[in-house]
Each structure stands twice: as structure tokens, then as C-alpha cells.
Amino acid sequence: MRSLEAWGLAGVAVLLVVVLPGLNALPAGSPLRISDFTLNLFGKFLAYAILALGIDLIWGYTGVLSLGHGVFFGLGAYAMGMHLMLEIGTRSVYGNVLPDFMVWNRVTELPLFWKPFYSVPFTLLAIVVVPALFAFVFGYFTFRSRIRGVYFSIITQALALSTWLMFNRNAMNLGGTNGLSGFKSVFGFTLNSAATQRGLYVATALCLCGAFVLCRTIVRSPAGRVLIAIRDSETRVLFSGYSPAAFKLFVFVVSAVLAGVAGALYAPQVGIITPAKIGVLPSIEMIIWVAVGGRGTLLGPVVGALGVNWLQSTLTTHYPDLWLLVLGGLFVAVVLFFPDGVVGTAQKLLKGGGRLGVMGVRLTGRPHEGRRPEEAKPQTEVPHRQAR
User: Fold this and answer.
1) Which residues contact 76 (CB under 8 A, 6 or more apart)?
2) What residue spans define the domains of the chain?
3) pLDDT category of residue 382 using cuts at 50, 70 and 90
4) What is the DSSP letter of 177?
5) Cα–Cα distance between 256 and 131 in angstroms, integer?
6) How far is Cα 50 from Cα 48, in angstroms, rounded to an integer?
7) Which pLDDT band, with edges at 50, 70 and 90, does 380 fall under?
8) Which one of 156, 191, 327, 338 is most buried, counting C-beta atoms within 10 A?
9) For residue 255, pLDDT beyond 70
């Protein structure tokens, strides 16, 4: 089973990392060629899938619903965007070393917090450290105060709203409502080149594979068992001698880092990052991706992120006025009729297939599903530990 599962995941990884960019590199007249636009669009969807994996860790496996992950996504995207803006240099509209929006706002000197982003290593470090540090500080005080359930969701939603309002202010010197845009190059490579966009896609696909392996390792580790136990009964975990706050803080920081990396990969491929990606609405949309795909499965969030965003891209092209109605209807249908999402529902259907059902469940990465209740129960229990 494990061998078959490994081969299946390896096949998907090869498809994403090798086959799709290879088809894009074919000559223009080839019937198998994938257009630059399609590959770029799919690269954006893969960045969203990385973000969805992080949300699945904190919500699907730990039971903590965060409605503010757009903040961490935006922090990573803005860190990358600041470096890309500085790479423009004198190639800007006004021929000034300062970004164009600073010239508009009559800023005469580059703000101090912008200057370190000239450095590529600092930028890459900031993409990881800034969301992680922000999540650590916020999570430490929140989880330490034993705020959970709907109250935690409301606080994270307020965090997204306040961050959105802050980033909209021109006084922040981050572009205000227009955000950061007009990127010319990324790490010295021309951004509008097909080869550069192909490289960004490959980097995103590799990061998605790495994120999946990381999340899968976490949920299958002893710490993953504790996370599932927290989701099922946090009080029982506390009485077993464990600290739920520490585990929740750990997984919250990991999910924030994944969101920051996703944002950093999103910015150069789309060419713009604005506060619109930080607010409440995008944060709720991210939750819908995971719900539609199937939370607590790892594979489900990836499927949900790809499927929902592909549907959005298709509908907004032909029927732009219908998208919000479809999105709302999709979420209501999932909540009422398919609470386990696409992957979770398929998993239940495959259960009746005996060994095939178990294999299908294992491919999703969802722990202990596909077994009889009496078999699964001992594995989800947390070993009792003497409380200090």
C-alpha cells in the first residue's frame, strides 16, 4: 500500500514539475503545447494550493478555524513585492530610483524599512520570518489566554480587517489601495520572459510538493496525533498532561509560513499585490477552498484550491455576474450536503470497496479513516502522560 501510494504521489509530482512545463516549452505550432497564459494561471493556482495546505493543518487537523490567513499570505507577497519594486530602479515611469507611488506621494527618500529588501537573501528570509514572527506573537497571546472556537475565528477576522485598513493607508509607504505593481524582473531575470515564467511555475510546483511532504510528515508524527486529539477533545488532551496551546501555536506558525511562501510565489506570477488580498473576503474564500476539497485530508485542500479557482477563472470570463452566487451556493451545498468535501465524500464512497477504499483514503493523507471504529479509536487517543 505504501509503495503504491508513494508511486502515485511521485507521478503527480512529475506531472506538475516536469510534464506541464515541458509541454509549455514545445514549439508554438505543436498541438500538445500549453500556452504561456495557461501555465502562468496554473502556477497561481498552485500557489493557492500551498496556502490551502497550511489552512488544512490548522483547521482540518487541529480544529482551529482561522479567518485571517490572508494576512500571512499578504505579508509574504509584500516582502517579495518590495524587492521586485526595488529591482525596477530607474526603469520606472519617472526614471527615479524610488518606486513610482512614492514619487506620486512626494516621498523624497526611501523609507528605512525598505532598504534591506535590496538584498535577495534578506528578502527570502523575510518571506519566512515575518509571517512566522507575526503568527507567533499573535498566537502566543491568543492561545495562552485559551481563546478558542468561534471567539478565535472572530479575532482572526478582526485581525484581517485591521491589517487591510492599515495597508490601505498611503502613510504606510506600501502603495496604498493600488499596492505594488509594475514589476520588471525577478532576481535579475526579465519577468515577461516565457522562460522566467516557466521557472517561476516550476519553483511553485516544487514548493507545493515540499509543502505536501512537510504537512504529511507532521500529521503522521506523534505530534500529529496530538493535533487530531486536540481537534476531537482539547480538554481531554489537557488532562492527559499535554499543553494544547503549545501544539496549536506550533501548527499556527507553520501554516503562516506556508501562507507567506505562497504569497511570495503569487506576487511575481500575477505581477501585482494589493490590500485586496489581505482582507476578510479573501480569507473566507481560502476557507471555502479547503471546505470544498475536504478538510483533514491534505489532498482535499489542493483539489479545492485548484478546482474552485479554475471555476472562478472560467465563470468570470464568460459570466462575471454569476461568480459570487455560484461561490455562495457552492459553500452552502458543501455545508449542508457534502460536509466532508469532494475528497472526503469520495473517500466514504470508496470505503465500500474493501482494500481499494483503504488505499483511496491513504492517498488523501487523512489519518485513521477507512478503518472500523474499533480499529481507529486506539490510534487517535493520546497516551496519558503524568502532568507536572
Assistant:
1) 127, 130, 131, 259, 260, 261, 262, 263, 264
2) 2-26+35-372
3) low
4) G
5) 6
6) 5
7) low
8) 156
9) yes
- Which residues, listed in sequence order, are joined to residue 185 by a DSSP beta bridge? 190
Q: What pTM was estimated for this model as a whole?
A: 0.88
**Cell 506538475 sits at which residue?**
16
- The pLDDT value recorded for residue 111 is 93
Enter the C-alpha cell of residue 41: 494561471
| Cα 74–Cα 150–Cα 62 angle in degrees, nearest 5 | 70
State yes or no: pLDDT of 381 exceeds 90.
no
Question: What is the sign of the dihedral through the CA atoms of 236, 242, 248 and 249?
Answer: positive
DSSP state at residue 277 = G
Q: For the segment 203-248, what is each residue's pLDDT rounded down to a tens digit? A: 999 999 999 999 999 999 999 999 999 999 888 998 888 899 999 9
H or E element at residue 166: helix 150-167
pLDDT of res. 210: 95
The answer to whether the CB of 250 falls within 8 A of the CB of 58 is: no
Residue type, 160: A
Cite the beta strand spans of 99-234 per DSSP E: 180-181, 185-186, 189-190
- What DSSP letter does each residue of 210-242 carry, written as one string? HHHHHHHHHHHSHHHHHHHHHHH-HHHHHHTT-
Q: State the chain's mean pLDDT as an integer.
A: 87
pLDDT attached to residue 359: 40
Residue 199, burial from CB neighbour count under 10 angstroms (0-12, 13-18, 19+):
middle
Q: Calculate the CA dihedral of residues 307, 310, 314, 320 and round it to 10 degrees.
A: 90
Q: Which of 225, 182, 202, 169 is nearest to 87 (CA)?
A: 182
d(CA 255, CA 136): 11
pLDDT at res. 216: 94
Backbone phi and psi for residue 329, each to the nearest 5 degrees, phi listed first: -65, -35
Judge whether 132 and 43 are in contact, CB under 8 Å: no
Which one has a higher pLDDT value, 188 or 366? 188
Contact partners, residue 12, CB within 8 Å, separation at least 6:
none
pLDDT digits over 49-78, tens only?
999 999 999 999 999 999 999 999 999 999
What stretches of 160-248 adopt beta strand conformation (E)? 180-181, 185-186, 189-190
- Which region holds residue 77: left if phi is over 0, alpha if psi is between -120 and 50, else beta? alpha
